[in-house]
Amino acid sequence: MRQLERVGISEVRIARAPVVLIAYGLGSCLGIALYDPQVRIGGLAHTLLPAPRAALPEMRPTKFVDSAIRLMIDRLLAEGAAAERLIAKLVGGANMFEPLYHQAEEGIGARNIRTARETLRSLHLPLAAEDVGGNYGRTAEFDLQSGELRVRSVRRDDKITIL
Amino acid sequence: MSFNRLTAGQLDTLKEISNIGMGHAATALSQLIGESIFLRVPQLKITPIGDVPDLLGGPEQVVVGITLQMLGDARGSILLIFPRESAHRLLSRLLGEKEKTLILNELGASTLKEVGNILASAYLSALGSLLRMNLIPSIPLLAFDMAGAVVDHVLIQLSQTGDEALMVETVFYGQANPKEAIRGHFFLLPDPASLELLLNAVGEQ
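^ inputs. structure came back:
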């Protein structure tokens, strides 16, 4: 019996095996999975934006790539994960709407991906795998029993990529 | 302006102006496909951003989404969502194609974008003359994918200033028998900063 737990937009969820965490329909949003394979605890974040604008007061930390990663690490360590065993995987960050003309500015999806890679690097957290970019949506299923991250895309004939 | 501080009267006003705009858009669509288009009473919802994909039938529902920016004196996003079957019927009607399922080639995508452009232009021009504002649509962008993925960039824009979305939704449908009906959802998501402008413009009439 699979125990599915949904991770909605701008949410972070932590769980243990045999739970499967699932983030539906990621477009420009970025799914970030962190996992400790030894104790089989992991977290999945469904983030919208790279980081809050400096001028605004801090809003939900789970909305932003950078703060969601840090929050997930804190919560995973509190649940018994070890920092040196944690690995990360990224899904999403697409550009769903192809602009008619070339834009010099990178899209929000690309900025989300770049921010995640930078934050992970600065925290010395290895990026084990990723399925990011492109112009199509993805649903990410994170199986905490095996550590597998299954990525499904309707635009690619429901093809499943396993990370 | 926070969405939660809106009074019942202001919410009714938003519904009413949107209904007028939508009436014009429906007339345009009905002339385009040569069939009457009916409108449901507009629904106004203030919801957490994360709940929006569920209001579109679920985050994995496959839809065609056309989005435009509302530009000019007030800003916001317009989102037009067609369930896959309705987009297919609309294209068959407009292009006379006989494919069994929706195949979105360049001609099909371009046709649907043009439908979006016509609806949004009719809507904004009615709204603009009512409110004495200059409102123009941007070029339309289209995506054919899971609803969650199609709408998240609109939600990302909204989320830069808050955690909630105000949506004025109108469902429109053709008169054909229910099996062949064309259904669509038309959403106006005003930027929080422009909402006050819109309401003030109504108050001054």
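The CA atoms of residues 37 and 174 of chain B lie 5 Å apart. Chain B is about 45% helix and 25% strand.
thumbs up if we can close this ticket
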